[in-house]
Design goal:
By secondary structure, this protein is mostly beta strands.
């Protein structure tokens, strides 16, 4: 499933933190999204009340974001 979202608040994190495995070691760099930025994303998990997990289809980065920091626009 793909969505289009718009970032409402600045959001950053570490690559690899959204992978739900104990053995991930991908935390080598950070990602950052600015308010107003629009993304096409693959949807992985939106049922958790704290973190929603997407893959940014432009960069290929899998990231987690609180629901209050983005708006679904499609």
């Amino acid at each position: 499933m793909h969505w289009h979202i718009e970032i409402k608040e600045p959001h950053s994190g570490e690559l690899g933190e959204a992978i739900e495995h104990e053995d991930h070691v991908l935390v080598a760099s950070e990602y950052h999204y600015e308010p107003g930025q629009k993304l096409e994303v693959a949807v992985h998990k939106t049922d958790d009340p704290h973190w929603h997990i997407f893959t940014d289809l432009d960069s290929g980065h899998r990231f987690k974001i609180p629901a209050e920091k983005y708006l679904r626009i499609d």
